[in-house]
Amino acid sequence: MAEHRREFEWFTEDHTGDVRLSIKARHLYGEDTPFQRIDFYECDTFGRFFTLDGLMMVAERDERHYHEMLVHVPMSVARDPKTVLVVGGGDGGTVRELVRYPGLARIDLVEIDERVVRLCEEYLPGVASAVSADPRVKPIFEDGVRFLKEAPDAAYDLVLVDSTDPIGPGEGLFSRKFYQDCHRVLKPGGILVNQHESPFYETYAQSMRRTQKRLREVFPVSGVYHFHMPTYPSGMWLFGFASKGLRAVEDRLPDAPAGTPAMPTRYYSAGMHAGAFALPPYVAALLSDEGGA
Ligand code: SAM
User: Fold this and answer.
1) What does the radius of gyration of the chain's CA atoms come to, in whole angstroms?
2) Among 8, 75, 157, 186, which lies 20 to 30 A Cα-Cα from 47?
3) Can you tell me which atom of ligand 1 is nearest the CA of 58?
4) Is 69 exposed, middle or buried (CB count within 10 Å of its CB: 0-12, 13-18, 19+)?
5) For ligand 1, atom 15: residue with the closest CA
6) Domains in the chain, start-ordered, CATH in brackets?
């Protein structure tokens, strides 16, 4: 059902049983898609933002923190990548950062919910515009779990899993079987980066430990890196970095363009790349023992 309301209200998201994020915002549009509830808002501090099932997804003010760190870390390590698979990422921010690399030949975007893409093109064009504008981008509207199961071996240089949390349609994107399929579809030298939750609040930390344990069981190189994400629970968020051999920091290309005048960025830099993998002792401890299911 489409709704158009313009008065200010408080958007509130529960982060834990006793912690919430509230933003004074105007609701722009809402719709029940076949997969989830999507709502668009605008506010003074974070600009426009959208939520899925009431959870913050993308806000104009801090989305570059997320999309730059998701894309430019692996793209500064991979050796002459040509093909990239993005799973999820319907807002288009990940694709926007990928199309800045002229050497890429193909970007497959496997997003389960086409309405996320179409509505982000309408309400967040600064984030979503590359999806339809760049001929290298091929949107594929299906479940990423099924797509990976059927995808051919050694088809991609990078797999970027830009998913929701491991609940609802996103749950299957955190399974061991899914990571085994990611490993199979990656070429030698391939890299997987995935949305890897957070170490600060207990429920997210449990999910982080489970995810890292599964990645370690599948990939010879595996770790996490952190970045600042004010609109996400606790503000400290992680990506997982897993590869068939390349190391995230030691093997970073010295002439990687991201963060230089050739490819200006707001959050990513060579220094941030290296620093992101320096984990606080409490995070390293959470990841050291083989905890989690
Ligand atoms: N940055 C956000 C975060 O960290 O939660 C996620 C960005 S993007 C909006 C997440 C996308 O994953 C959504 O558009 C959702 O529809 C999609 N998605 C969830 N489960 C999926 C699945 N099984 N296959 C493909 N896309 C999926």
Assistant:
1) 18
2) 75
3) 1
4) buried
5) 88
6) 3-59 (2.30.140.10), 63-290 (3.40.50.150)
Count Cβ neighbours within 10 Å for each residue of 94-114 and write b for 16 or more, e otherwise: bbbbbbbbeebeebbbbbbbb
Global pTM value: 0.96
| Residuewise pLDDT in 10s, the chain (293 residues) | 455 556 889 999 999 999 999 999 999 999 999 999 999 999 999 999 999 999 999 999 999 999 999 999 999 999 999 999 999 999 999 999 999 999 999 999 999 999 999 999 999 999 999 999 999 999 999 999 999 999 999 999 999 999 988 888 889 999 999 999 999 999 999 999 999 999 999 999 999 999 999 999 999 999 999 999 999 999 999 999 999 999 999 999 999 999 999 999 999 999 999 999 999 999 999 999 654 43
Interhelix angle 281-288/202-218, nearest 10 degrees: 60
The reply to whether ligand 1 has any atom less than 6 angstroms from the CB of 113 is yes
Nearest CA to ligand 1 atom 20: 170
Tell me the Ramachandran region of residue 113: left when phi exceeds 0, alpha when psi lies from -120 to 50, beta otherwise.
beta
CA of 173, closest atom in ligand 1: 23
Query: Which two three-digit tokens encode residue 70?
Result: 């998701």
**Pairing mode, strands 83-88 and 156-162:** parallel
User: Which residues does the annotation mark as catalytic?
Assistant: 162
Residue 62 in contact with ligand 1 by CB distance below 6 A:
no
Distance CA 187, CA 145 (A): 19
